[in-house]
Design brief:
Elements (H helix, E strand, L loop, with lengths): L12 E2 L14 H11 L12 H9 L2 E2 L5 E10 L6 H7 L4 E14 L6 E16 L7 E3 L2 E5 L1 E5 L2 E6 L12 E6 L6 E5 L5 E5 L4 E3 H7 L5 H8 L2 E5 L3 H4 L8 E3 L4 E3 L7 H9 L4 E5 L1 H4 L6 H6 L6 H12 L7 H13 L7 H12 L12 H15 L14 E4 L1 H26 L7 H4 L3 H13 L3 E3 L5 H8 L1 E3 L13 H4 L23 E3 L5 E2 L5 E9 L2 E9 L1 H4 L4 E2 L16 E4 L6 E2 L6 E3 L8 H4 L9 H11 L13 E2 L3 H7 L4 E2 L4 E6 L3 E6 L4 E5 L4 E2 L5 E2 L2 E2 L6 E2 L4 E4 L3 E2 L2 E2 L3 E7 L10 E5 H5 L5 E14 L2 E2 L1 E2 L25 E2 L4 E3 L1 E4 L7 H10 L6 E3 L2 E2 L6 E10 L6 H36 L3 H35 L7 E13 L6 E3 L5 E8 ...
Parallel strand pairs: 1-56, 8-20, 25-28, 29-56, 41-55, 42-54
Antiparallel strand pairs: 2-3, 3-4, 4-5, 6-7, 7-19, 8-18, 9-10, 10-11, 11-12, 12-13, 14-17, 15-16, 20-21, 22-23, 23-24, 23-28, 25-26, 26-27, 30-38, 31-32, 31-37, 32-33, 34-35, 36-38, 39-40, 41-58, 42-55, 43-44, 43-52, 45-48, 46-51, 47-50, 48-49, 51-52, 53-54, 53-58, 57-58
Helix pairs in contact: 1-14, 2-14, 4-10, 10-11, 14-16, 25-26, 27-28, 31-32
Length: 1216
């Protein structure tokens, strides 16, 4: 049944039952959209919105001098074009970016106050920095390496309320804390003590009474504060019952008796007696219904002894925040206002204002981004209400309280840091120079911007080296959500709650895909349909339900909004009118799953796939796997290496094409047309509108993980192609579909103990047919530097090296492309000057005869490291212009021109030949003219391409390459190695069923089916029941049926093939419905006792290959202090013989073996040298000596001022 649609996409038998309501969004849009909004690159300055870079400039500017006579205003910014292409940046180790320039206006004023007049205006464009640009794949090229900025999940700014550990002693109630957290600025927290008194803390410093903050805001009297919180009623003074034990709301001074009652105090018998003596008719009291048996602000008010003036409160705050510093009322006021009400110092961001409005029921503008008095009062009111059992505390793990900072926002924050530093410099400079004589550029220093951007892209925890093992790994990395990083959580301190799955993750963050190690739950992935809104909250789509009828209206909801609605599952059954069939439906409401009638439902899921991430959505029969194994399955797909013969899975989930399309690894036709020319490197399509589209394919390019990207054309000459059709596959795709592994025939049966404990037995057939062969490309580079002793030189003339060792080097000392190299072979010959020693008379004579040639140089060539071999596939040489003479430059230019002229000539000859052939084929003049016009156009396109290439190469020779300081020449050599599958390689299925190859068995010895077909892989059946990943069994059953009937399957997650579908497919294929068959032993020919599960399973080869792990050492590098061998394969280290291993030998009593290991095989420097000599000469090894670690111990004891003497055994006896 295998077939393809009009766009060349493979047709699959679809087992899903649910209609597709919504197409998957672009999977890397999250990165591109965020950065585009930050840069607003293609929008004219006057039309730019006040977001991203524009907002940052507007925020910092205008910058005014301290005297106020000059200000620097921002006009606009402009981005240049990138100097080099993405490929050139990768080759040269440069950053792909564009120059950022901004125009500023300097306004110089004269006069004071209202007489101030503009004296002069100067406008100038200033170069800021090179700002990295995002490639069309959502990545950045920083110093030649492809990097990804990971999205950060952090706590949303705003106000939050949480339970306190404090136990209240006086009033009955719970103590809570309130926090007002800004995006940038000082935190303000309110908390109770055990007596019910409310304190404020600013920036987690010393406690201040909450009422002092209110007084500092201008509510100086107790009356004004009480009126903010409570209703005040007037009571007749004669009504004793209504007054006794109530709180007075207004200060009363009785002149007759000189008696004062403060607002907030209790009216007891004594107070009432005094009140009766006054001339007052009524008394204002706090409404008892609002304060009786409740936690109130009154105890705090009464504890506040400060004279109730705003100034005193401000001074009190200043003293608490800056103890020991002299204080004036002006400095105290400035300090307090700056802390919360200055937009430059305090910023809630739109999201912070939104959260405060939502929680406290305000309706202020989202652009009102500093604190307001109402916010502080509202927070205190809510805190008191909460303690009295009204309102809800916040869950900090709820996705309404966690938001995503994407790449644009992260870079914007970094850019702001640079601008703030620049502002400080400008202000200093303004006061130092004569402002009338300078231009803006003289007082602007943009180095801080450059430094902060470089620091972020180069070293930030969120700027990561892209995982490029395969296209899925790349895509997942761009969609990753990390709770770590600056302003986020700390891996060591993050508890279980933060890492755990929360009900608000539904449709937003994948509950399955997360690392297995210490980062579990802190790093996760965005789900398939999720998107991020302008406030940074993750939204997920739902279908609107109106009066029990499901509409096709799609609405995106945040976690906060979703809490108000009841939502049905995507699998709920509907009739043709969109009504729910069942009378009661299992629905979701917050974290519960109630059964509700259809009319109560507000929304419905769009797809069962919406709760998982892309990696997880690629696992068929996910619904039959245990979550722990599904987690492994998701992670292992990202580790699959590209194979040389990619095969799409027989059992897919239907999103394989979408993944490879969005990860931009396949080539699709930009326009409809006919294929004119195709070879392994390029495709030319003659479009319907008469142009020629040229597609240059990537050939054997190394990725960050040393795997290989290689594009292959899948169209033929003369084929009609449509816009959007796949015309070239990549190294991990098959007909445009993601292909991470191979479909192989698997039997689940124990095999002679070789598949014990997850080991795998494979057939030699897989080796012969290159089923799991991959290409591994390594890059080796060497620099020739300008050293103190002279310049290093890349040359073929290396001292003390045989001619045989130089056989693969060209005249410049660089290995030729195509050479086969093995460990120890020279790749690039390099000599470096030796330290100048006193010359002997002979050397002086030689120097006099031969000049500088006889100068002392040492061999510093680049050699192939141990364990590496392969074929040189590419060599790149970069050199400075200064390092080449004029004659050499002109010679190279001539050579290039000659080469390209020859190529042009060939093209013109081919064109003339084609014309001759066309004249013989086509007799109709019109048709002939058309074909000749195409041939002419083709030749023109190729010649213009050649001319462009030639110009670029000549320009490069004339300008030279930009290399790091001190480097004269840089050579990069790429070695490719075909890695066949071998014992020790790690294989895995898509269900977390991993294992290591234990044996490769001859084809004829493998178990075989009744028809004689030998199986490819034998897995242990015991690996299934305990792991509970039954998906692999269902995959094998359906795979067997689909392979037999020759079709491909799409079985989406939670909506795939059911048991009866699989049985039916097996029946159609004429296979046993149980999916089991009689299996025969390939060695004895006997059948196995029981029937065995056999089927086609999709198996991947993971990047953990044995060639990267196998390691042996005889002698090698040693640690400088302990003189013990280094550890690890990368350092060519030895095997560690640790504490427990020593115990094992002690237990055996193997004293001599132990002594040998601890001395001559470790740090007995003299002994190991002599032993090596003895082995070489064939003599007996000497007795072990003193280990160096003992000397280290002695030195440490001497460092403690202890005098240590070593006395030998025989000397001790002599003394006796």
């Amino acid at each position: 049944m295998e077939g393809f649609d009009r766009l060349g996409r493979r047709k699959r038998k679809d087992y899903s039952k649910l209609p597709k309501v919504l197409e998957l969004p672009n999977l890397i849009e999250i990165q591109k959209k965020s950065y585009d909004e930050f840069l607003q690159k293609d929008i004219p300055p006057e039309k730019r919105q006040n977001i991203g870079l524009q907002a940052t400039f507007n925020e910092i500017f205008p910058i005014e001098s301290t005297r106020g006579d000059v200000s620097l205003e921002f006009v606009s910014y402009a981005l240049g074009e990138p100097k080099y292409t993405v490929i050139e940046c990768k080759e040269r180790g440069m950053t792909y970016g564009a120059s950022l320039r901004f125009t500023v206006r300097m306004v110089i004023a004269e006069g004071e106050g209202s007489n101030k007049k503009v004296k002069e205006v100067k406008e100038q464009e200033v170069y800021a920095c090179e700002i990295p640009l995002m490639t069309d794949r959502g990545t950045f090229i920083i110093n030649g390496a492809e990097r990804v900025i990971v999205n950060q999940l952090h706590r949303s700014p705003g106000v939050s309320f949480d339970e306190s550990e404090v136990v209240l002693s006086a009033p009955i109630g719970k103590a809570y804390t309130a926090k007002i957290v800004p995006y940038r600025g000082s935190w303000l927290e309110f908390e109770f003590d055990s007596n019910g008194i409310i304190y404020a803390r600013i920036d987690k410093k010393r406690k201040i009474l909450a009422t002092i903050i209110l007084r500092a805001l201008g509510y100086t009297t107790n009356e004004s504060i009480l009126k903010l919180f409570y209703k005040v009623i007037e009571v007749d003074i004669r009504n004793k019952e209504k007054l006794i034990n109530k709180k007075i709301a207004k200060k009363v001074v009785i002149e007759e008796t000189n008696y004062t009652i403060n607002a907030g105090e209790d009216i007891n018998e004594e107070v009432y007696g005094n009140l009766q003596k006054s001339k007052l008719k009524t008394i204002e009291i706090v409404d008892p219904s609002e304060i009786e048996d409740k936690i109130t602000i009154i105890p705090t008010l009464l504890k506040d002894n400060v004279n109730p003036t705003q100034e005193d409160a401000l001074i009190e705050i200043y003293r608490k925040m800056r103890p020991g510093q002299p204080v004036t009322i002006d400095s105290a006021r400035f300090f307090f206002e700056n802390m919360f009400f200055n937009p430059k110092r305090y910023d809630l961001e739109k999201v912070g204002r939104y959260k405060i409005n939502k929680k406290l029921g305000f309706n202020f503008s989202l652009n009102d981004r500093t604190l307001r008095k109402e916010d502080i009062i509202g927070t205190l009111k809510y805190l008191l209400d909460l303690s009295n059992g009204k309102g809800e505390k916040d869950d900090i793990d709820h996705f309404g309280n966690r938001r995503v900072r994407s790449v644009g926002e992260l870079v914007e924050n970094q850019f702001r840091i640079g601008l703030v530093r620049m502002e400080k410099y400008i202000k200093e400079k303004m006061s130092m120079v004569d402002i009338n004589e300078v231009m803006p550029i003289d007082i602007i220093n943009t180095k801080p911007i450059v430094a902060s951007l470089r620091e972020f892209f180069g070293t930030s925890q969120l700027s990561q080296f892209m995982d490029q093992t395969n296209p899925l790994a790349e895509l997942t990395h761009k969609r990753r959500l990390s709770a770590l990083g600056p302003g986020g959580l700390d891996r060591e301190r993050a508890g279980i709650e933060v890492r755990d799955v929360h009900y608000t993750h539904y449709g937003r963050m994948c509950p399955i895909e997360t690392p297995e190690g210490p980062n579990i739950g802190l790093i996760s992935s965005l789900t398939t349909y999720a998107r991020i809104n302008e406030l940074g909250f993750i939204e997920t789509p739902y279908r609107k339900v109106v009066n029990g009828v499901v509409t096709n209206t799609i609405e995106y909801l945040t976690a906060d909004e979703e809490d108000e609605f009841i939502i049905a599952q995507a699998s709920a059954v509907l009739d043709e009118k969109g009504r729910f069939v069942d009378k009661l439906l299992q629905a979701r409401y917050k974290g519960d799953f109630p059964l509700v009638p259809p009319e109560k439902i507000n929304y419905m899921d769009v797809s069962p796939m919406q709760i998982v991430s892309v990696s997880t959505a690629l696992i068929p029969f996910l619904e039959h796997d245990d979550a722990n194994r599904a987690l492994m399955g998701s992670n292992y797909q990202r580790q699959a290496v590209p194979l040389i013969r990619p095969e799409a899975p027989i059992i897919g989930t239907g999103i394989e094409y979408k993944v490879s399309y969005d990860s931009k690894v396949i080539v699709t036709a930009l326009n409809s047309g006919v294929v004119e020319y195709v070879d392994s490197r390029r495709i030319e399509i003659f479009t319907d509108d008469g142009n020629i589209d040229v597609y240059n394919l990537i050939k054997y390019e190394r990725t960050n993980q040393n795997t290989c990207i290689d594009q292959r054309p899948i169209v033929k000459k003369g084929q009609k192609v449509f816009k959007g059709q796949v015309i070239a596959d990549s190294s991990c795709t098959d007909m445009g579909e993601l292909a991470l592994g191979q479909n192989v025939l698997v039997a689940l049966v124990p095999w002679r103990g070789y598949n014990f404990e997850d080991a795998i037995v494979i057939s030699e057939k897989l080796l012969k047919e290159d089923k799991f062969t991959s290409i591994y490309i390594e890059e080796f580079s060497i620099e020739a530097r300008d050293t103190k002793l002279g310049e290093e030189e890349i040359t073929r003339d290396i001292p003390n090296v045989s001619e045989d060792a130089l056989k693969n080097l060209d005249e410049n000392g660089i290995v030729r492309v195509g050479a086969e190299v093995n460990p120890g072979d020279i790749l690039v010959g390099k000599v470096t000057p030796k330290g100048e020693t006193e010359s002997t008379p002979e050397e002086k004579l030689l120097r006099a005869i031969f000049g500088e040639k006889a100068k002392d140089v040492k061999n510093a060539s680049l050699k192939v490291p141990p364990g590496t071999s392969g074929i040189v596939i590419d060599v790149k040489v970069f050199s400075r212009k200064e390092s080449m003479s004029k004659a050499k430059i002109s010679e190279l230019k001539k050579k290039i021109k000659k080469e390209y002229e020859k190529m042009k000539e060939n093209i013109l000859n081919m064109k003339n030949q084609e014309k001759k052939i066309l004249k013989e084929i086509y007799k109709d003049k019109k048709e002939l003219d058309e074909k000749i016009a195409i041939a002419e156009k083709k030749a023109k396109v190729r010649i213009s391409e050649i001319e462009t290439k030639m110009e670029k190469e000549i320009q490069r020779i004339e300008e030279g390459d930009s290399l790091p300081p001190g480097v004269i020449k840089l050579v990069k050599v790429y070695i490719a190695k075909k890695r066949k599958i071998s014992v020790g390689d790690k294989l895995s299925g898509r269900h977390g069923n991993k294992g290591v190859i234990a044996k490769i068995v001859k084809e004829e010895d493998m178990p075989y089916l009744p028809d004689g077909t030998p199986v490819d892989i034998v897995l242990n059946p015991l690996g299934v029941p305990g792991r509970m990943n039954i998906g692999q069994i269902l995959e094998a059953h359906l795979g067997w049926a689909a392979k037999t009937l020759n079709y491909y399957v799409s079985s989406p997650v939670f909506d795939g093939a059911k048991e009866e579908d699989i049985k039916l497919a097996l029946k159609e294929a004429g296979l046993p419905e149980s999916g089991k068959t009689k299996l025969f032993d390939g060695i004895t020919g006997e059948p196995f006792d029981e029937e065995v599960t056999v089927g086609y399973m999709y198996i991947m080869k993971l990047i953990h290959m044995v060639d990267d792990k196998i390691h042996a050492r005889s002698t090698g590098p040693y640690s400088l202090i302990t003189q013990q061998p280094l550890g690890g394969r990368a350092q060519f280290g030895g095997q560690r013989f640790g504490e427990m291993e020593v115990w094992a030998l002690e237990a055996y009593g193997a004293a001599h073996t132990l002594q040998e290991i601890l001395t001559i095989k470790s740090d007995d420097v003299e002994g190991r040298t002599k032993t090596y000599e003895a082995i070489v000469k064939g003599k007996s090894p000497p007795l072990p000596g003193l280990p160096e670690s003992f000397n280290v111990l002695v030195k440490e004891l001497q460092g403690l001022a202890l005098d240590v003497d070593l006395v030998k055994e025989n000397e001790k006896k002599k003394k006796k």
